[in-house]
Amino acid sequence: MFEENNNNQNGFDNGFQPLDSNGFNGENQNPKFVQGSGPNDDGAYRYSWTPNGENNDTGSNFHVNPAPKPPKKKGASRAVALVLCCALVGGGAGLGGAALYDRLGGGSSDGTTIYQNTTQGTQVNVQQADGVKEMTLEELYASYADSCVNVTCQVTVQQGWQQYTGTSSGSGFILSEDGYIVTNYHVIDGANAIKVTLNNGEEYDATLIGGEETNDVAVLKIDGISGLKPVVLGDSDSLVVGQQVSTIGNALGTLSFSQTSGHVSGVGRSVTMSDGTIINMIQTDCVINSGNSGGPLFDQYGRVVGITSAKYSNNGDTSSASIEGIGFAIPINDVIDMIQDFIQYGYVTGRPSMGITAVEVTEDYAKAFGWPSGVYVNAVNEGSCSETAGLKQGDIITKLGDTAVTTVAELNAAKNQFKAGESTTLEVYRAGETLTLNITFDEEKNNTQNSQTQQDPAPQQTTSMQDGYFDPWDYYFGH
Q1: What average pLDDT does this structure show over 211-236?
Q2: Which listed site, 74, 130, 323, 373, has its alpha carbon 20 to 30 Å from 32?
Q3: Is-contact 185 217, C-beta < 8 A?
């Protein structure tokens, strides 16, 4: 099981419902991204956009560094260990030197002698990540703490006949000077209001620009601001096990802008959600606690290579995970295109949609009604590509393209092999007959909600399905 990363101050179970399409504030956004033909002077590629396609110099900018060839390191880990040991020894010496010392025999007429060890404070250089020079943890924090934010959401939860209002907390990082911010989708899921707090203590209202639940990423916007310090995005595909990484986040929702460090413990970890969705993750031994969700995972060059998202637990208790040193982050390369789409369009472009709600045919239903294994269609959206293809409520989908499907997860996986506008065939069972239908996928334009084909109860609800929308992140991570 996995632990969520937020702070529920009221202590109740946050059964949030996702924002509807009105939660977007992207209807007036028509930005255009331009990628330079080559690196800038700082070695980074620049993405910029301008509202309504205007050609001006006031657009948002964020940097993506090309993957560098890391310099060969000789004894780096030994040097780090030595520095840490020296720091501990030095601290002990300082405490010992500050102790009072009385001479034996009741002291002397000169009085008590006090010994104090005075040292100069550490000098920290503020730098810009260039993908070449490694930063110390002190330098990284001094350079990019101001690029991190606390995210606080007001939420309303229905319990029985009563409604409760509370707050949930998470983390995020600044993507552009004019206030675009990246966080996890589950941090802002169901929020009535979102506030962002900067490292200097200033608090701003934020708007949800776009979010995608399956990959747990969202983009927020602070309006009427400029001059913020954005992060530099790195290349998560170049990460290797053992590489140093660190995080800055809102630990426990109260210990804001806390830094933790560690190493990459694994790459390409496949985390399977309860609905069968598989998410690619970076595994790290950085300390990740409630409230760290949505914060940046930095490499040793100070570039953001991931979004901290989850901590492993073997007991399902989201308040106190029993396993330390197993945390997960979403690779930045997996979501950068989505982030760009959110800023430009408010949704992920090219995502296929069938426009149906469905549930798998259980073994009991198959025996009771003489149905084949497959996916039962509970509803077909009016005007959808499925309606155009001739799919009807009550049909059982047994095959999509060349892929046999028996569960909603398998149907989604088969569907996601296509792009919006592409065509394939549907094999369905209807009233004792097997039919073949031709379908051309729609584009999913409102994927702030779950972008997958949604699961609904079959005509008679089974104990294995929840009524209506199913949220795998609640099951594993909570809010």
Answers
A1: 93
A2: 130
A3: yes
Same domain for 332 and 247, yes or no, is yes
Catalytic residue, from 171, 176, 265, 293: name it: 293
Query: How does strand 148-159 pair with strand 162-174?
Result: antiparallel
The answer to whether residue 84 scores a pLDDT higher than 70 is: no
Q: Catalytic: 423? A: no
In whole angstroms, what is the distance from residue 282 CA to residue 211 CA? 20
Q: Catalytic one among 60, 169, 186, 313?
A: 186
| Whether residue 314 is found in the same domain as residue 383 | no
Give the domain-ending residue among 293, 319, 342: 342
Q: Are strands 232-233 and 60-64 parallel, antiparallel or unpaired?
A: parallel
Rg (C-alpha) for the chain, rounded Å, is 26
d(CA 8, CA 3) in angstroms, rounded, equals 13
In this structure, are 165 and 304 located in the same domain? no
Task: Using the predicted structure, report yes or no on whether residue 202 has a pLDDT greater than 90.
Answer: yes
Strands 180-183 and 403-404, sheet pairing: unpaired
Of 461, 367, 355, 357, which is closest to residue 408 (Cα–Cα)? 357
Residue 161: domain span: 2-66+144-231
Q: Is 305 helix (H, G, I), strand (E, B) or coil?
A: strand
Averaged confidence pLDDT in the chain: 74
| Catalytic hit among 189, 216, 235, 341 | 216
Instruction: Tell me: pLDDT of 272 over 90.
Output: no
Is the domain of 169 the same as that of 29?
Answer: yes
Of 26-35, 365-374, 410-419, which gets the smallest average pLDDT?
26-35
Q: For this structure, is 293 an active site residue?
A: yes
* Residue 376 counted as domain residue: yes
One domain for residues 152 and 34: yes
Helix, coil or strand: residue 72: coil
63 catalytically annotated: no
**Arithmetic mean of pLDDT, 60-80:** 47
Cβ atoms within 10 Å of 122's Cβ, excluding its own? 9
